[in-house]
Structures are given as structure tokens and as C-alpha cells.
Amino acid sequence: MLHPFPHQRGSGEPIVELQDVTAGYDGQQVLENVSLRVMPGDFVGLLGPSGSGKTTLLRTILGAARIFRGKVSVNGTNQVNKRAQAGYVPQLETIDWNFPVNVEEVVLMGCTRHNPLFPWHRRQDREKAHEMMERLGIAHLLRRQIRELSGGQQQRVFLARALVSNPDLLLLDEPTGGVDIKTRDEVMHLLHELNHQGITVVMTTHEINAVAAHLPWLVCLNGHILAEGPPGEVISPEILRQTYGAEMPVIEYQGMALVAESPHFFGRNGNGNGKGKERDNGDDNAANQDGNDDRNRDGNQYDRQSNSDNDNGNGNNPVPAQITQANY
């Protein structure tokens, strides 16, 4: 896990607070009556199906969504028609990778809020950008076009852009989406380090076993908040059923609550209905008959072995659940 369990939440005033917030876009309501407190030093995962309002919740904190009712405060400041002082990393799939910009230019975009000379960058801005690129291991890529980077490098570039202004709060939208397992683990370890350096992290994720189960605090939502707490309390069949509208069995593995995914067999016999697909060609039918005879002989031998296993008490074991986990 990313933190010792149970995670000790910060004390004092929350860094983010939503009070009975209803928010959305262009008169369309996405979130309803959301109340949430994020304490300094928290590492929070937002969990829910597509369209549940996870991204809208991040944008509401940022001040980029319309608030119809309620109050949003960041660092004690009411976010009415105001952008929060926070770093933000969007989903990689929303970025135009063909835009002609290099790594250094992307990172410098994070300095524009306090730069009255933009688009000209001050010396101190360039120094901070280079320092952040060194910290994240991408300084050697500063002249590289962003479309030429790997998924992990692209994610680090936008993390550098978000962190170059030294925010206390970091918001990330699906930072592990669309990347391979190695890159996912690198991103999660990097966020772990940043969090332990004092940065409060709020991220969205679809990955329950590989990501959410390892976070110290989860918030399940689907238009409104359904539950929040440590993974051991939130990852339960009842809460997941309310969140996703589907049955999701949960098991405990090495002290962690994980979703057990049963194997799926699609079209095993050609049409997926348990019956073989009929063929019109007589030669094919003859070949199938020969094959069936061979399978019947093999099957009889298998049945005898299965009966022997049953006699030994080993024949009733179910197919093991497929479990995906990661070590952070």
C-alpha cells in the first residue's frame, strides 16, 4: 500500500471543502448535493463508472465547472468565479499530441499564472522549469516534441507543468489511464513520493485492484457521493453494487480488499452459445466426427481421472478468481 494502514488524516482546516454542492455545465447537472472534505496531506482516489462525475468534481474544485448550489473552498478561499491555486493534470487522451510544442514549453505553461510578461518567460521561470524537469527525470528531453515521447514521459511532462508553480494541491484525472503496467507503477510511485513531500493529491481512477485498493482514502460517487473511507471499508460488494450497478464479488488477499474477476469465455465453440456451429460441407462433418471420436476417448479418460479426484476430495474446487494487484 502507499501508506501505513490505517492512514492518519491531517488535522486542522481542510485544504478542499465542498458543502452541498450541485454542479455541472451549461445548465446540465452532473453532481448533486456533494459534501466532501480533503485534509492537508491526504491522498484521495475518486472511484466510479464513466459519466459518474469524477472529472466534474475535479473541475468543480478547480473552478472550471458551474456551481448551481452550495459552496466550494480551497485553502479557505471561496471558489466563486475563481481558479483554485492547484496543479492539474488532465487525461492524456484529451491532449492534442500533434500540437507543435516541446517539453520545455509545456512545463513553462505552468508558470503563466504569475507571469505578467507571458508569452515571454522570465529567467526565474526557466530556472524553476529546469529544476522540476531534473526532479522528474525528463531534463534530457527538454527540446523533444511531446508527440515523440512515451506514455510515461508524457505523464511526467504534464506533472512537471502542474508542479512548477509549487502547489499544495495536485489534481489528476486518470493519471494511469491508457498506459502500460510499468508506466502505471512508475506514476503511482512518483505520486507517492510527492504526497510524502507534503503535496495533497486527489486523483480519479477506473482501476480498482491495481490503483484504488492501494490508496489510503477512497470516495465512491455516481452523481453524488455514495461512500468514503479506507479501501477496506469502501471496497465491499454492497458499495460497489451501488456505485457501478453490478454485482462485484470482493475477497481479501494479503490484508487488502480486491475485486474477484471471474474468467469470461467468449465464443468458445464458435458462436458462444455452447453449441458448435454447423457446417454444410460433408468432408468437414466427417472430420468433425473423427475429432469427436478422439475427444470422446480422451473425455472418458478425463472422466475417470475426475472421479478419482472427487474421491480424494479435490473435484469440487471452483475455478480460481482472477486477481490483479500491484505492489506500491
Keywords:
328 residues, alpha/beta, Rossmann fold, 6-stranded mixed sheet, 4-stranded antiparallel sheet, globular
Report what the structure shows.
With 328 residues, the protein is of the alpha/beta class. It has a domain at 1-86 and 206-265 and 322-328: 3-Layer(aba) Sandwich (Rossmann fold). It is 30% helix and 21% strand. It has eight helices and twelve strands. The strands form three sheets. It has a six-stranded mixed beta sheet, with helices on both faces. It has a four-stranded antiparallel beta sheet with strand order 2-1-4-5, covered by helices on one side. Strands 11-12 form a two-stranded antiparallel sheet. A hairpin with a 3-residue loop joins strand 9 and strand 10 (225-229). Helix 4 (151-163) packs parallel to helix 5. It is globular and about 55 Å long. Residues 274-291 and 293-325 have low confidence and may be disordered.
